Amino acid sequence: MILRFYRSFPGFWAPALLITLATLMPTHSRADAILAQDFLDFDAQEAQLGRLLFYDKILSGNQNISCATCHHHSLHGADGISLGIGEGGTGLGPDRTPGEGTHRIAERVPRNAPALWNLGHSEVREMFHDGRVERIGAGYVAFKTPAKEYTPAGLNSLLAAQALFPISSPTEMAGHPDENPVSAAFAERIDLGWAMLADRVREIPEYQRLFKATYPDVHDPDDITIVEIVNAIAAFIGTEWQSHDSPYDKWLTEGTPLSPEAERGRQLFFGDAGCSGCHNGPRFTDQNFYAVGIPQFGPGRPFGEDTMPHDLGRMETTRNPEDAYKFRTPSLRNVALTAPYGHNGA
Ligand code: HEC
Ligand code: HEC
Predict the structure, then answer these.
(1) Sign of CA dihedral 207, 209, 213, 216
(2) Which ligand is nearest the CA of 279, by number?
(3) pLDDT digits (tens, 9 = 90+) for 195-219
């Protein structure tokens, strides 16, 4: 098709050849750099409020775990273990244990907690290893999430849409339905759980003051909803975990040479090793899904009637058998800091 088009316009042959050669070259260009202006523009005050919420156990059913437990600053935004240990566990990172007595966890979180680097980059299109929270449509903010029609309006970003889910998950933060009213509400209908969590937050005078100061539409405590809560958390994650000052960035933007070993790796990565076929663009991800054969490990995610301990990945969202065991190409930014690897840390 393209060749036929160019043949009928002979003057276009030369540029076409150059463009083709350029795309075949195993080198990179400035276009792949991450720059400060590539990030969503979050409000600094909103991010400060989000920082408090991110570290606040009040958002968990049994008030025993916060987002930071699995995405900790001291562990580069992750937890340093293969499968997360959710509510009921004790300790942090590799020292975290399943807890004791009646509160001991029944089941590990079936997937690895990803680090949070560069998720505020404006190109990010999907969240979670299987991309089940997605930004859809162009030029406006619309999200496809497992909450379907209960997904609230007014979310400021994909990160805000994502933050609606860890709080509702029994193994991560909510706890089991017979343990507390929040989790019982989530089990009944997801938006009922969100409303109960917002009730908890709006009872605290310091939060009342901060939400009023941050959001012009919040005049009294009743105006605080789950939307403001997740928007604040999103502002925090999006501004806090930015990384674009590595030696590779300096190579991209200023041409500063890499070490000889890293330069050889770069050439392999973009050349014979074929990594950049999937790990490309500013975040080293094409944001597509592939079954690369990471072995099953842990409890998996039961699917419908199927109780096999496996994880069908992308197929859970699309229901297309061709998507079985496919997972998102992860970003490789700061990957040296965020082991273990793969959707289940295997
Ligand atoms: C018990 C551990 C745990 C807690 C607590 C937790 N997370 Fe996570 N987080 C995970 C795991 C595991 C995943 C991957 C889940 C998946 O892909 O199905 C994840 C995924 C994410 C992602 C998606 C990252 C990406 O690259 O797609 C974001 C963002 C995130 N969590 C933010 C939060 C926020 C905000 C909170 C608090 C409201 C939170 N997490 C609480 C373990 C946790
Ligand atoms: C066909 C697409 C594809 C190619 C080619 C590819 N990867 Fe990946 N890579 C993936 C996917 C998909 C995952 C996640 C798999 C999972 O979680 O089950 C992944 C995971 C990774 C991870 C783990 C990252 C993390 O945070 O967990 C690293 C590191 C990685 N790849 C490096 C490479 C290197 C190096 C090459 C070249 C030798 C390469 N990849 C080639 C698709 C690809």
Answers:
(1) positive
(2) 2
(3) 999 999 999 999 999 999 999 999 9
